[in-house]
Task: structure prediction
Amino acid sequence: MALQSLDIARRSATTTPAPGVRQTTEVAKLIDVSTCIGCKACQSACMEWNDIRDEVGSCSGVYDNPVDLTAKSWTVMRFAEVEEKGKLEWLIRKDGCMHCADPGCLKACPAPGAIIQYANGIVDFHQENCIGCGYCITGCPFNIPRISEADNKAYKCSLCSDRVAVGQAPACAKACPTGAIQFGSKEQMKDYAAKRVVDLKSRGYEKAGLYDPAGVGGTHVMYVLHHADRPELYKGLPNDPSISPLVALWKGFAKPLASVAMAAVALGSLFHYVMKGPNEVSKELEDELEKEDAK
Amino acid sequence: MQVSRRQFFKICGAGMSGSSIALMGFSPTSALAEVRSYKLAHATETRNMCPYCSVSCGVLIYTTGDKSKNAKADIIHIEGDPDNPVNRGTLCPKGSGLLDMVKSPNRLKYPEVREPGTNEWKRINWDDALTRIAKHMKADRDANFIEKNAAGVTVNRWNTFGFLASSAANNETGYISHKVLRSLGAVAFDTQARI
Amino acid sequence: MTNHWVDIKNADLVLIMGGNAAEAHPCGFKWVIEAKKDRKAKLVTVDPRFTRSASVSDFYAPIRAGADIAFLGGVINYLLTNDKIHHEYVKNYTNAGFLINPDYKFEDGIFSGYNPEKRNYDKATWGYQMTEADKKTGDSWVKVDPTLQDPNCAFQLLKKHYSRYTPDLVSSVCGTPKDAFLKICEMIADTAAPDKTMTILYALGWTQHSVGSQNIRTMAIIQALLGNMGMAGGGINALRGHANVQGITDMCLFGQNLPGYIASPTEADVDRKTFLEKRTPKPLRPNQMNFPQNFPKWFTSLQKAWYGNAATDKNDFAYDWLPKIDGAYDTLALFEKMHQGKMNGFVCQGFNPLASVSNKKKVGDALAKLKYLVIVDPLVTDTSEFWKNHGEFNEVDASKIATEVFRLPADCFAEDTGSFTNSGRVIQWHWKAADGPGESKGDIEIIATLFQKLKAMYAKDGGKFPDAIMNLTWAHRIPTKPSSAELLMEISGKALADVFDPKDKTKVIAKAGEQLAGFAQLRDDGSTSCGNWIYGGCWSQAGNLTARRDNADPSGLGQTLMWGFAWPANRRIIYNRASCDMAGKPWDPKRTVIRWTGTAWAGNDIPDMRPDAAPEEGVMPFIMTPEGVARLFAPGMAEGPFSEHYEPFETPLDKNPFHPGNPKALNNPAARVYKGDMEVFGKAKDFPYVCTTYRLVEHFHYWTKHARINAVLQPEQFVEISEELGKEKGIANGDRVKVRSNRGFIKAVAVVTKRIPTLMVDGKKVHTVGIPIHWGFKGLTKPGFITNTLTPYVGDANSQTPEFKAFLVNIEKA
Amino acid sequence: MMRNPKDLTRYDAQERANHWLVGICFILLALSGLAFFHPAFYPLTQLFGGGVWARILHPYLGVLMALAFLVMFFRFKSLNAMTPADKEWLSRVGEMMDGNDHNMPEQGKYNGGQKMMFWAMALSMLLLFVSGIFLWRAYFSLPVDVVRLGAVVHSAIAAIMIAMIFVHVYAALWVRGTVRAMVYGTVTRAWAKQHHRAWYRQVTGKS
Result:
């Protein structure tokens, strides 16, 4: 019997595999940007369900509010006015955790169990175990996690793991008025996306496509984009993101290598001592000095 | 779980250095990873409707307690009603935030009066408030009611009193308000419909 | 809505104009997206701003605020000159062939019968040509030319009237690029095919103009020409405002109507007979249903609902107990009266007029002249503190305001049980979840307790005309707390005596005391009672049908007939007889709403037709008109039987481009303007920019500023201007600006955006300033100015809906 | 404490205190740092009152160590200037390691190896300090790429430094009679004569 309601695939800072014989369906959230009206219902539902209320901000000359993700805003809409060849497009993207198959945050996290990847693909933060170091931010290719100023813990979208665990869709997906956010098995979502891409191509968006970046092993939050060839148009969605090589080095190779190297030095010293013996002051020299003293 | 070759080496490498420490008495504590417990598990569900726009989305209101005598029902969550054929469980940013309207710190809790020329509210009880209002209305009506117009036609009209009716109230509220208003002879009333 | 929310998914083309469905009705807008996804439907948006609706549209065209009739008139002209109309439909189901009075004229922007002093029309010349009355029956019918060739037939007059709306002129008046206009015309014209439909989704963007009703009428002409009325995926769909604005409209909380749109008695209706005769029309064509002929049944049943046994044929069913109105009592008229000091008391039940009525200064001054003001609301409204100084947001001196203000806490939706009627006319029941905070009470309890107090005072002390008060029916278990169930049963109607089948006088169809099955069972002899005839049958012997929750949709068209109850008669698409050809075959069999089975009308909806009216009988689909057909030529409108483009009362142009030589035709000639309001209309030389006000998706009117979540989502008041205007005025994104009209000013943050286009109108550049309305001095958002500080005090000539959508302002850096 | 009045003073009290301040800081930093570096070491956070305390304390300890080391650096900087003799010593370090130090060139207060260690430590300290600042989210918010670089540098240098400290400590243990220099402050003359003859001559004036 598992001790949790969702099976675990990976947990941060844990070197042994989680119980993994059960097979659960991978889930995914699909954000069809082409049918998103930027109404922020997802933001509202997210705040309501997760019992988080951000500060009342101010208008900075754009519709983006809150202006960025915070520990209390796990998802925000990003609005971009793009005018090309005289045609205006208002590209609106729901930003938030992508729930990568290969999560940079989890890779970077030093606190065991602070970040969990469930077998269904959800990457969840467990604030009880979080030590507030911010390594997850360093590891994330999408700039998602935020440290709370109140408790110095990292927060981000949980894909409503509490809802998913009991068989419900995440709050944002359920709320989305136009159905721009869909939720289901990853396979279903890919099929649905394929249909949407066909529709978009028939409407003249020849470069429409699915954003499920392979660089992070695919994601469990995917986008249908009208301009899949230029994700950066959508307020800087990274083109071909991956875990930074620096992070890969830091939390990949370097970890065992350095540990072994340090151990080797320690062991080397020990063996040196055993094999060569201590470096004592020579008896002759001591005698010589004793003699001198005796004079 | 599928373990790739790379992962295998990683695990071995880490395991080796880890196990040497483990011998010294350290072992990573097993971190429990239970999801946040489902907050509606024992809440009471009530079917209602969003009071904002005319899509009139179905909503499910969740309250604490099971309606037993001593457990005061408190609204803790509102989400879309998936059965409603129009919204099918979806809600817009206003509907999704309904909880904060219901629980707004700006909800009125007690009858109040602002006396003429003063600069503050005074709390009064319901009976006093409604009695004072009724007295005002009766005095006004008795003074300004028009039974017949200049041509001698019975008009039974009271038009020095006006009423603006809520468009977010129930049909039944609208109906009874209309019924009461006409019985008083009131004609100066309107709704939000054309604003 | 003639159709309903889910039905939008059946459309081939969705036109959003005069509204912004994506922002104002996101959950209803879902069905637009479904139409796009599943039917490959196209979405077209026409708006002064590139809205959220535009962001997911296949095609967007800009338009100057207040130029919709020019645009739509141009569409009519396009359809007629390119012969893109649904001929069968137009010929049979509209008054195209009806001959019009030859004295009807239209000259340089003014129709025949105009009285410039009174600013209204004598409509005598706007009628039909009638046959001589039959000597035996007295019947007189409209003359019809089925070939539509007679120069005096409605169709030819229509053609002539709109021939002036050429693409060039349209483009020049609207500022819409000509190719964009023509492209939209083409897309609309495609739906003239019998099996193609267009739906139009509009809202306050059309109604809140001095020509609001005519905006909609022009669209109605288009939909009639295209044969889109009565069709699944068609219709004229007003996306209404509040959750129950439809229901409250149906309950007719206006001075000039009784519940169920029964026109209130006026001073001219001296007795019941006169009253009924005027309101009970005779059919204008043979064999038509002329449904309003049942008016006496509706009215009598209402009087029985209100006065019960006290209303008898002896006292004219208490006809005189109803007040007779002497003029207009719309919101603008109310505040005008109040401003003149002619009102003593006022109740705002869930209404925040200081924020939501035009010209805040005038409204505030008016409220200060009241003796007593009663606020019944769940929330702290701005109106409730109109007397309190809130700095520059509300500059008043409390010590000088003698109004006694009561503020009563009301329960909100979650705290009471009852029914709401959505925009698609579906009445749905909802249940109470918890008690309200503190001492709050339900609206019904508040009004009932107040009434009981008044009644007791009249019983004890007497007073003016107590009869109607003392005899008002009040059969409630708790007199101070009538239940919603009791009231809905009263609204729906019941038999007071046994009701018999008119075809078989021995057959009882409803026993005394039973709930009636529908308005067809109402009688004018006092044997039935019904609080609102259009809701008839919503609570029948079968129980509360509004509480039904079976969402089965066997047709796949979204016709969930077992969910709630739609008025009238649970019909989901009205005029649905028009979805079939003359022989009763659906124009599009794939979207069968109803059809003639050979013996009866049946299908996926309640037929809007006598069920046994065989097609050969020639009973036409528009049963609520005495003609039986839709009106291309509509004599009932205040400013003309056809629509005409008139400039808003505050216009950037100095002449109406359609009538450059006639200053009388600059603005709506029939619109009512009060003294003092005309004087504060701004001129383009001082206020050069067109301003339009609107709502944002994150907020609902002035409520959600009290909800933390929504305050977070859109915290601070802003105004939107184009990049070009920003450059001209040195205003950068995020700057604070001051916007002035001739009635006041507001200050807000500037949002400088590509989404506000600059338009070329009548040869000159016209800039638009857009202002969302949601802020005020009370709330959890940052305090803001009331946007209606700026708006003009003038309304549409028919409905008196204020002109919030097009007026003039100036803007500068604050 | 002077066991034998003839013992030679190698470090005065201030120097010793300074060294041990740095040393204790380093140990605590290494323990807490390792805890974040590899999960196997995470239980070390318990020494600090848990992960959160370890995360809070580590950077402050780092600053303290940097300051203490800075003082030490200026104290010992001039003593660690490299000389040709050091280079020769270094080139024959293999013999030394073999325990065969009789033929090693004569050394001053510090031998070439110690001097190398000193400079390597100084450089490492600098890098650790700077990269540590990059990672200190409580006070600094830098572009993520800078932070990432900081993380790699910080952990790499820390690992190298820990290894160097192992060597440093081992050398002290291996060369008997050394540890007391940092405990009592004194060494025996024999020790000095054997390992740092030039220094011995300098302080005793004898050949």
